[in-house]
Design the sequence.
């Protein structure tokens, strides 16, 4: 028997080993050593370490974290903020839930280090409404961390103050977009802002604000403790460290798994996930969430890092791997995805508000067996317009499943066009 | 065909409930950024899972913001509504990871069990049935929420049993 793939747990290293709300448990596992180290360094030294480590954002965009921090550090302001994006709304993504459920202190520590590095004394965790059990858990963990001096005034005997507040979402996918999230924390509709200015310069209440994903921030203490070189030694040249993948859909062993970047998608599905469930065949895989790419079964032999996926015409995104068996229909799936985006488009910009609606209408024609080649051409042309002209990432990325489904499953669309079903 | 809704729909809210709303929202006076938190707490407290107009006006005055701001937010977020709902709001996820694992069958089963369609409320105001987008427990799909309780790995039979227990 082949040896099954071993996980490498950096971010989830404490999962199941500690009582998540007890700061003592976290400290016993080496917790808050990263913050202690950070407090002995200068702001520039910390940012250099994060830059050198190659840490990139884990929410989907993959922006270099150290660079993001340096923008905010470089602006002088009476108040700056660290905002943790815990909105995790991308369908097929369950990683931040696991992190916060098992090890909330690792997130607090990451936020405090980020705060010290850029000169922020206050942080917000924007937590999605759909994780009701996490609200009391995080509040309790925050209370305990404050009581032991890891948050609040004069942290660990230093002159650094930092505290964290939790803010709730209320069911809006678009609030995963950083400026929409900021609007929501301000108590408004979650509509994205025009950029520039970027949040790093003018964010929450117009103040310089770092917005980082949960998984990104949890990597930070480990990098401080073990060094940039250690971190660079994990993963690939373009993407250092590990990535948490949410394996879901029609797979035998769905779950949340952490691997170094560069792990093969085929290995994840077949060896870790035990292949397609119930003896069915593999029709497709959607990587990167609902705004990610839909690829064929013969395209899954691919190393998962951000740049390599892009080279293969796929997206890594938030690390979602949705396995779709051959009892499903691609045209139906795309319809489901476009209904999602029609529902979640905030309506502020025309390309997204109208574009998603039209894409759904075009796709519905194929569901009903009346689509034509002209409809396909219009779907692709409209998708192109949306990708270029939409205000935020939602409308820029929502055509991705449409475009990749048409490209990779042309035969299915053709069958539907002729009035048949696939 | 008329949509099924609960009997209290459209009626003014009890003065006693409005007084409670006033008390709760007053704690957030001068903190307009906490509006989502206020709405969340009020919606859970009132018993009909909604922010109808008289409740919204009460919140606006108590917090010290225009009524328009309250409905800006209520109308934007999926978890809020101004339409009176049942004591329990059943939200069944229809996002792709649930969709490919039989979410539709779960929806049909629950709809059959409580005798209403999606967007409707039972006549006794006990249940409102809704679909929702991703609940974030995708490795355990299909999933649903009943108020703040989350259920996963659903089958039509399991979903029916869960609802029966309410």
Sequence:
């Amino acid at each position: 028997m082949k040896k099954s793939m071993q996980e490498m747990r950096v971010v989830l290293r404490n999962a199941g080993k500690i009582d998540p709300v007890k700061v003592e448990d976290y400290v016993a596992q080496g917790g808050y050593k990263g913050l202690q180290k950070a407090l002995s360094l200068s702001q520039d030294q910390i940012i250099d370490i994060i830059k050198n480590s190659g840490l990139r954002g884990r929410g989907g965009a993959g922006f270099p974290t150290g660079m993001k921090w340096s923008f905010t550090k470089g602006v002088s302001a009476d108040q700056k903020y660290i905002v943790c994006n815990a909105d995790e709304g991308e369908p097929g993504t369950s990683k931040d839930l696991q992190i916060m459920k098992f090890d909330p202190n690792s997130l607090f520590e990451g936020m405090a280090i980020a705060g010290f590095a850029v000169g922020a004394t206050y942080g917000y965790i924007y937590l999605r409404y759909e994780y009701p059990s996490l609200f009391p858990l995080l509040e309790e963990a925050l209370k305990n961390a404050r009581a032991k001096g890891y948050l609040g005034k004069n942290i660990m005997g230093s002159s650094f103050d930092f505290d964290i507040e939790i803010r709730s979402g209320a069911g809006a996918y678009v609030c995963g977009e950083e400026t929409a999230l900021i609007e929501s924390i301000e108590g408004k509709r979650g509509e994205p802002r025009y950029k520039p200015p970027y949040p790093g310069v003018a964010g929450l209440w117009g103040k310089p604000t770092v917005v980082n994903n949960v998984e990104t921030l949890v990597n930070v203490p480990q990098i401080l403790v073990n060094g940039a070189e250690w971190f660079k030694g994990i993963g690939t040249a373009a993407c250092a460290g590990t990535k948490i993948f949410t394996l879901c859909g029609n797979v035998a062993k769905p779950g949340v798994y952490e691997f170094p970047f560069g792990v093969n998608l085929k290995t994840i599905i077949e060896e870790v996930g035990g292949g397609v469930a119930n003896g069915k065949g593999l029709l497709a895989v959607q990587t990167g969430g609902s705004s990610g790419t839909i690829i064929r079964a013969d395209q899954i032999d691919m190393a998962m890092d951000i740049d390599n996926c892009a080279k293969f015409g796929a997206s890594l995104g938030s690390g979602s791997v949705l396995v779709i068996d051959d009892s499903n229909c691609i045209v139906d799936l795309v319809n489901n995805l476009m209904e999602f985006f029609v529902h979640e488009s905030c309506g502020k910009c025309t390309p997204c508000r109208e574009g998603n609606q039209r894409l759904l209408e075009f796709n519905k024609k194929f569901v009903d067996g009346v689509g034509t080649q002209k409809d396909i051409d219009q779907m692709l042309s409209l998708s192109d317009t949306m990708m270029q002209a939409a205000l935020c990432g939602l409308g820029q990325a929502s055509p991705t499943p449409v475009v990749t489904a048409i490209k990779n499953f042309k035969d299915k669309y053709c069958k539907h066009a002729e009035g048949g079903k696939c | 065909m008329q949509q099924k809704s609960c009997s209290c729909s459209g009626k003014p809210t009890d003065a006693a409930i409005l007084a409670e709303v006033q008390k709760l929202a007053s704690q957030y006076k001068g903190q307009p950024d906490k509006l989502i938190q206020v709405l969340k707490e009020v919606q859970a407290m009132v018993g009909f899972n909604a922010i109808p107009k008289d409740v919204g006006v009460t919140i606006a005055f108590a917090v010290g913001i225009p009524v328009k701001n309250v409905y800006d937010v209520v109308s934007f977020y999926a978890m809020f509504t101004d339409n009176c709902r049942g004591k329990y709001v059943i939200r069944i996820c229809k996002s792709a990871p649930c969709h490919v694992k039989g979410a539709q069958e779960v929806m049909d089963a629950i709809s059959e069990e409580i005798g209403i369609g999606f967007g409707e409320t039972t006549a006794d105001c006990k249940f409102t049935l809704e679909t929702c987008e991703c609940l974030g427990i995708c490795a355990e799909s299909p999933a649903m929420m009943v108020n703040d309780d989350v259920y996963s790995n659903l089958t039509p039979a399991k979903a029916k049993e869960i609802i029966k227990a309410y």
